[in-house]
Amino acid sequence: MLFLSHAVQASALLLIPSVLGAYSLQDDYTTSSFASMFDFFTADDPTKGYVNYVSQSDAESQGLFATKNNTVYIGVDSTNVASGRGRDSVRISSKNTYTHGLIILDLEHMPGGQCGSWPAFWTLGPDWPDWGEIDIIENVNSATGNKVSLHTDDSCSISSTGSFTGTVDTTNCDWDAVGQTSNIGCSFEESTPETFGAGFNAIGGGVYATEWTSQAISIWFFPRLLIPSDITSGSPDPSSWGEPLAIFAGGCDIDNHFKNHQIVFDISMCGDWAGNKWSEDATCSALASTCESFVQNNPSAFVETYCTSTATSSSDIPTTLQTSTSTAVVIVTTAPPTPTTETSAAPAPESTSTPPGWQGWNGSRQGWSFEGSSWGQGSGSWGGGGSRRGKNSGA
Questions:
Q1: Does the residue 385 lie in any domain?
Q2: What is the domain range of residue 263?
Q3: Is residue 389 part of a domain?
Q4: Is 194 a catalytic residue?
Q5: Does residue 395 form part of some domain?
Q6: Is residue 236 part of a domain?
Q7: pLDDT tens across 153-194, in order?
Q8: Which is the catalytic residue, given 108, 138, 189, 194?
Q9: 304 is known as an active-site residue
Q10: Annotated catalytic residue: which of 133, 189, 211, 292?
Q11: Cβ neighbours of residue 332 under 8 Å, at least 6 residues apart?
């Protein structure tokens, strides 16, 4: 689920600080309203991917997008030989936009690690690259770990030292920085397989939390059994979470480079990153001479290219956040909360079975799977997922 808000709810929220500094829910994405709170992008892929982004009605009729039994499913076609623009897939963008906040995404299953695939969970400002891009979950082809990145115009860089668990890859966030691969931006690599794709799915998923303030953009990853209890209880307190995977800070005025972001889920194929890196991936290049040829002719390779999550109801009054096996939480704030008392890690939640009538889950499709989505502090909509020009070749 995803959380963003004024009141705390069960699966998807956007949080803003109350007068006491604690996060509270503003908007709650229920399963029934989830689709209405996103725009489905259907234009040609801005990153030149071999992918055909379909409308909501087409996605639903093909089983690529569904909301049922408190769960949201987003995936790609894993049945047909592709033609035309490429393999059928889904790209959705939040209608609301956000500046500053805490985004908590709890997934049970994510795509990733399949040759030709380029899944991403990210945020994007208008007039790219003027108002930036934050890539929270992303990688391509047979990669087994996550890569997190920022993309901006000039005059934004980060420190290569600090208290974080990831490995700094590049430090200049300028998409066209001299001495860096075009559009790689500033980035951190995380080689731990549990952070992405099959390794993430094998442990029952987990939580990605992104805190965006005027001082820094920080990203944490918590495996399923180590999700902090303050998150599962609906009172997230980043000050108690320990070292993040990545901290983007140092030589960048955050407020001058990041503003009014949409939240985006998409699963692209080939294109400027996965396609251009095809020949460098020994596993994938051994399967076909080109990325496009492989993606076109091997639908069964994308059985695991999907994501799932469940949603909750909306409320204007703070309520207890219920624990579930796959919660997607997005919490957006106008300012960071005042630190509260530390909390310990939550006990492992009970597992749940695949909802009846959902053929193909956990074994027949590739896509995003998450429980719910809530967003808050919205400030307009620019629909269709923006341009995603921020994904041209490196990240």
A1: no
A2: 2-370
A3: no
A4: no
A5: no
A6: yes
A7: 999 999 999 899 999 999 999 999 999 999 999 999 999 999
A8: 138
A9: no
A10: 133
A11: 4, 5, 14, 15, 16, 26, 98, 100, 101, 102, 103, 212, 375, 376, 377
